[in-house]
Design goal:
The chain has about 300 residues and is α/β, with parallel strands linked by helices. It contains 10 helices and 12 strands. Helix content is about 40%, strand content about 20%.
C-alpha cells in the first residue's frame, strides 16, 4: 500500500473543475486562472497520486478511468461544500452567549444588570434561559450556568458567585396589624409563605432559633421565589426569603423585616461552566464581568 499524504486542496479543486468541463480552458475560466496554471496543478496532483487522470490529446482532453472514478467520489464532497457555503452565507451570525439561570435570580437580579454587560460587549448576543432544570452541558446548548445551592459539578469550573441572607419579611401593613409579632416563636401564629427551593426552610429556621414546631407548619407554598415575594407584598403572610431577591422591595420599604433578627450569610449562587468552555472569549468575558459585579471570587475546578 502506498504511503498516504493528503493532496493539495487547490490541486483537487482544480482537477474537479477540469474533469467537469473536460477542458483546462473551461476550468481556467471558472477559477480565474490560466490554462497552463490548470495544467500544472493537475500534473502535480497526478504525480502525488501516482496515477494518470487525463489523456492529453491533440483535440483536447479525455478523462481516464482512474480520473472518472476519482471525480465520482469527489463530486458529492464538493456539492456538500457548495451547499454548506450557501447556507452559511444566508445566516447573519453573531457571537451568542447562552446563559442558564434560576428563574427568580434571572428576574430579580440578573436582568437589572444585564444592560451593563451588553454595553461592554455590544457584539455579543445574550440568550438567557430561566429554568430550574439541570442542563446537559454536553449538548452544547448552554455556555454557562448560574445555579442555586449546587456546587458539586465534576469536570466543570465552579465559581462561588453570591451569598444571601434569608430573613422573615412581610408588608408594612401586615406588620402593623400583627401587633403580637415580636419574636420567632410568634410566627407560628401567622400565615407562613413557603418556598421549597430555598436552602433554608421555615422548619430549619425555627429549629435554628430553638423554636419547637410539631407537625407541618401552616401556610401556603409558592414557587418560585418571585411569586412568594409578590404574595408577601399583597399581605398574604410572612416569607422567609433572600435579601438578594427582595433587595428592591426592602430598599423601597414595600417589604420589611418581620422583626429584628441576626441572620448569617450563606453562599447560595454558583457560576458553572464546562472546563472546555473556559477558553471561549464570550464565557471568559461574562464570567469575569459577573464575578467582579458580585464582588470577586476565585475559580475552582
Amino acid at each position: 500500500m502506498k504511503n498516504y499524504r493528503r493532496p493539495s486542496l487547490k490541486a483537487v479543486s482544480t482537477f474537479e473543475a477540469a474533469a467537469r468541463h473536460e477542458s483546462f480552458k473551461g476550468a481556467a475560466e471558472e477559477l480565474s486562472l490560466t490554462p497552463s496554471a490548470i495544467s500544472h496543478q493537475v500534473r502535480q496532483l497526478e504525480e502525488h497520486l501516482g496515477v494518470k487522470l487525463f489523456h492529453r490529446l491533440s483535440g483536447g482532453l479525455a478523462i481516464t478511468d482512474a480520473g472518472s472514478a476519482y471525480l465520482k467520489m469527489l463530486s458529492p464532497v464538493f456539492s456538500d461544500i457548495d451547499d454548506a457555503t450557501k447556507q452559511i452565507m444566508q445566516i447573519e451570525y453573531t457571537d451568542r452567549l447562552t446563559v442558564r439561570s434560576a428563574p427568580s435570580f434571572a428576574n430579580k437580579w440578573l436582568l437589572d444588570r444585564l444592560p451593563d454587560f451588553l454595553k461592554l460587549y455590544p457584539d455579543t448576543d445574550v440568550k438567557v434561559i430561566a429554568t430550574s432544570e439541570i442542563p446537559d452541558f454536553r449538548s452544547k446548548s448552554i455556555d454557562i450556568g448560574i445555579f442555586y445551592g449546587q456546587s458539586d459539578w465534576p469536570g466543570h469550573t465552579v465559581r462561588p458567585l453570591l451569598s444571601e441572607r434569608l430573613l422573615p419579611m412581610c408588608s408594612p401593613d401586615f406588620k402593623k396589624k400583627a401587633v403580637t409579632l415580636r419574636c420567632a416563636e410568634d410566627l407560628l401564629n401567622f400565615t407562613l409563605i413557603h418556598t421549597e427551593r430555598n436552602l433554608v426552610t421555615w422548619k430549619m429556621w425555627f429549629t435554628d432559633k430553638g423554636v419547637s414546631s410539631t407537625g407541618d407548619l401552616r401556610g401556603v407554598c409558592l414557587d418560585p421565589s418571585e411569586l412568594a415575594i409578590e404574595a408577601a407584598l399583597r399581605g398574604v403572610g410572612v416569607i422567609l426569603e433572600s435579601d438578594l431577591l427582595a433587595a428592591r422591595e426592602l430598599a423601597e420599604g414595600s417589604l420589611v423585616p418581620a422583626f429584628e433578627d441576626t441572620v448569617s450569610e450563606i453562599v447560595s449562587y454558583y457560576l458553572v461552566y464546562p472546563e472546555d468552555n473556559g477558553d471561549l472569549p464570550k464565557v471568559v468575558a461574562f464570567a469575569d464581568w459577573i464575578i467582579n459585579l458580585a464582588g470577586g471570587s476565585p475559580a475552582k475546578n
